[in-house]
DNA sequence: AAGTCTTGCAACCGCGGGCTA
DNA sequence: TTAGCCCGCGGTTGCAAGACT
């Protein structure tokens, strides 16, 4: 595999980004799109490698980022998603509009892990620590036994051991609805934090609907009559068989049920809040690097970040609003300078980016798999959707002329992102399901 | 007030996969 | 088929700021 050529180049800046660098990168991307990342630094006049530019943009400068502390709902969702997806931060991030994989990863490592441990939950397996310790002890003793046996020359036994260590455990380990138990515990976490309880709009339903719709609507390799309960632990045959689950997580689904219910009394009684409530985030100042942004003079809109607590949106010098630090969403909706800037990716990006950024002009252009995924996405991606009632409410009647004018470009941005997320979701849930061989399903019927 | 420890998070690094010539 | 390029991901590091002694 070839490595990124920039890795070998000398005299490239590393470390924290200066406001000037941010400004250059933002200017460049708002004007031309990123195209090929490797060419961005050169075109933008930056002494950075493309990779670094990409990272800075994705993790910090991107317009749709929701900065600030994570809400309790978001944390709970991350925990639930982690129970299902493991350390697949990008996939987890795809379900949290405005959050980056890096941010989530950091949160997990710095905060959530500790919280879970404090509450007696193993953050890796999402099982009670006591249970995990017992398992470890059991495994340790089993290993020592197997080692004794393998030392006698039995290669077969070592193979079995390897299987167990991968938690394949089809015969050895009885599948348990771990996640259901864990989720119940998480609901306690949430309750203890005094969060709202939205009952039905749970992640379980979200996943179930996704999984269900995926299996029922996807035309590729779908089992025509998927009956019985699916144990994901059983499906998780190994690293290359894609359900992408934490190997210790078991979910049960009743695919026959009209409502796609999770087969667990824990789920039926637990009160999990998983809906993202964008209003809960608070814009917090980044500790170190504060971008100071000045847009090109030919740009009809400009935003000056005097500090992170307030900014001014102006249209040709005419101020259209001064926004104080109310909430991140208000900032994003009322103040985001990105709203005021068209993102002409498609115009100047290189071929590949053009393809990626292509926005179908009509429904007929949208491939089926994207369409149905949009349906799946819609209720979940509140913060990222134009249908978000919260956002609409925020716009209210006080929406300014400039905001109306700017909306088009932002909605493009969101549209693009939604599609990307839809595609990602399709990839995550679809690919994995589609990969499951018929024989695998057969085992559950 | 000064030194040390802890925490949070931005950024880097290395790797794997997809694409293309 | 292979090699090179590029992108994206996940793990890790380094550092600034805050907390603590």
TrEMBL record:
Region (Disordered): 118-160
Domain Myb-like: 9-61, 62-112
UniProt cross-references to CDD domains, sorted A to Z: SANT
Residue span, HTH myb-type domain: 9-65, 66-116
Annotated compartments: Nucleus
Keywords for this protein: DNA-binding, Nucleus, Repeat, Transcription, Transcription regulation
Molecular function, one GO term: DNA binding
Cellular component, GO, one term: nucleus
Comp. bias intervals (Basic and acidic residues): 124-151
Entry keyword Transcription: yes
A Pfam family hit: Myb_DNA-binding
Domain of life: Eukaryota
Protein name in the entry: Transcription factor
């Amino acid at each position: 595999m070839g490595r990124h050529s920039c890795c070998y180049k000398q005299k490239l800046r590393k470390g924290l980004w200066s406001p000037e660098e941010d400004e250059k990168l933002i200017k460049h991307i708002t004007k031309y799109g990123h195209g090929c990342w490797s060419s961005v630094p050169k075109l933008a006049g930056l002494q950075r490698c493309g990779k670094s530019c990409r990272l800075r943009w994705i993790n910090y400068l991107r317009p749709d980022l929701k900065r600030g502390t994570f809400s309790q709902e978001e944390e709970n969702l991350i925990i639930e998603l982690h129970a299902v997806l493991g350390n697949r931060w990008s996939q987890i991030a795809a379900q949290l509009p405005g959050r980056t994989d890096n941010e989530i990863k950091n949160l997990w490592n710095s905060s959530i892990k500790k919280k879970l441990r404090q509450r007696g939950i193993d953050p890796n397996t999402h099982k009670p620590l006591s249970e995990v310790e017992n398992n470890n002890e059991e495994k340790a003793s089993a290993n020592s036994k197997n080692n004794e046996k393998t030392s006698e020359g039995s290669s077969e036994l070592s193979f079995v051991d390897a299987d167990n260590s991968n938690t394949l455990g089809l015969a050895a380990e009885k599948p348990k609805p771990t996640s259901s138990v864990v989720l119940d515990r998480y609901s306690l976490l949430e309750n203890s934090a005094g969060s709202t309880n939205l009952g039905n709009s749970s992640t379980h339903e979200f996943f179930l609907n996704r999984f269900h719709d995926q299996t029922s609507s996807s035309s590729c390799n779908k089992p025509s009559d998927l009956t019985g309960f699916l144990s994901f632990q059983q499906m998780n045959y190994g690293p290359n068989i894609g359900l992408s689950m934490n190997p210790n997580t078991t979910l049960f689904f009743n695919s026959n049920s009209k409502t796609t219910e999770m087969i667990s009394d824990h789920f039926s009684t637990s009160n999990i809040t998983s809906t993202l409530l964008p209003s809960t985030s608070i814009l917090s100042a980044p500790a170190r690097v504060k971008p100071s942004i000045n847009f090109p003079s030919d740009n009809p809109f400009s935003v000056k970040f005097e500090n992170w607590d307030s900014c001014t949106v102006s249209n040709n010098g005419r101020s259209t609003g001064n926004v104080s630090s109310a909430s991140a969403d208000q900032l994003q909706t009322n103040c985001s300078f990105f709203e005021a800037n068209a993102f002409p990716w498609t115009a100047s990006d290189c071929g590949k980016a053009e393809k990626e950024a292509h926005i179908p002009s009509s429904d007929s252009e949208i491939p089926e798999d994207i369409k149905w995924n949009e349906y799946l996405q819609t209720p979940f991606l509140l913060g990222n959707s134009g249908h978000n009632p919260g956002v609409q409410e925020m716009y209210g009647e006080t929406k300014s002329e400039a905001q109306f004018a700017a909306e088009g470009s932002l909605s493009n941005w969101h549209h693009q992102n939604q599609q990307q997320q839809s595609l990602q979701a399709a990839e995550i849930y679809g690919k994995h399901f589609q990969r499951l061989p018929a024989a695998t399903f057969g085992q559950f019927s």
